[in-house]
Amino acid sequence: MKLDVIKLDGGKAGDIELDADLFGLEPRADILHRVVRWQRNNAQAGTHKVKTRSETSYSTKKIYRQKGTGGARHGDRNAPIFRGGGIYKGPTPRSHGHELTKKFRKLGLRHALSAKAKAGELVILDEAAAEGKTAALAKQVKNLGWKRALIIDGADVHEGFAKAARNIEGLDILPTMGANVYDILKRDTLVITKAGVQALEARLK
């Protein structure tokens, strides 16, 4: 598939032939869902913790005699049945992550790129380079109509461009190795530089 290449000022810079294996697939929601779920689960801290009956601060002394009270039999006040007692089977620190093969993760990234291309939300940029002036870049982004955009550059991000884009709301920039399904789907517009396209093709082949 062929797509126009644009410059930051909105002018045209020719066109580019995109690999159908990366940008021409029929997007599958089940594949995208599995990869996003894997990403979000790995990002989850898993630090939630409650106190069990062995960790609460009441005395372990038997609270009243076993027989003759007319009430139920109880030992110490740390039992889960009492207010302030330990929590039974509550959350403890653990990893929420699970395994997903490299082959499937690559497949998910290809489907994410294809989903953006099919929806008409893919833009190919000649190069992401700026002098480090946020105001100038913000004006160009506004003129291009990018409100929530992710820019994927080549192996390295241009230092001046990264500095200029740092404080623009709704604009993210990543090197090719940082490209991931969740960030691509989260943004309304996916912008890839020509260097980024070449690097993605090399990475996902």
3D architecture notes:
- This protein is α/β, with parallel strands linked by helices and 205 residues long.
- It has 2 domains: 2-44 and 99-204, Ribosomal Protein L4, Chain: A (3-Layer(aba) Sandwich), CATH 3.40.1370; 50-90, no CATH class.
- It has helices at 20-23, 29-43, 102-118, 134-144, 159-165, 181-186, 194-204, and strands at 2-6, 12-17, 122-125, 149-152, 171-174, 189-193.
- It is elongated.
- The model has no long low-confidence stretch (mean pLDDT 92).
- Residues 65-96 are annotated as: Disordered.
Features:
205 residues; alpha/beta; single chain; 2 domains; 7 helices; Ribosomal Protein L4, Chain: A; 6 strands
Quick overview of this protein structure:
This protein is an alpha/beta fold. The chain has seven helices and six strands. The protein has two domains: 2-44 and 99-204, Ribosomal protein L4/L1 (Ribosomal Protein L4, Chain: A, 3-Layer(aba) Sandwich); 50-90, no CATH class.
Unreliable residue stretches? none
* Strands, count: 6
Number of helices: 7
Query: If you average the pLDDT, what whole number results?
Result: 92
Q: Which value, in Å, is the CA radius of gyration?
A: 27 Å
Secondary-structure element sequence?
A: EEHHHEHEHEHEH
- The name of the CATH superfamily of the largest domain reads Ribosomal protein L4/L1
Distance between the termini: 17 Å
- What is the helical fraction, as a range of percent? 25-40%
Numbering strands along the chain, what is their spatial order in the largest sheet? 2-1-3-6-4-5
Family: Belongs to the universal ribosomal protein uL4 family.
Region (Disordered): 65-96
Pfam family, one: Ribosomal_L4
Subunit structure: Part of the 50S ribosomal subunit.
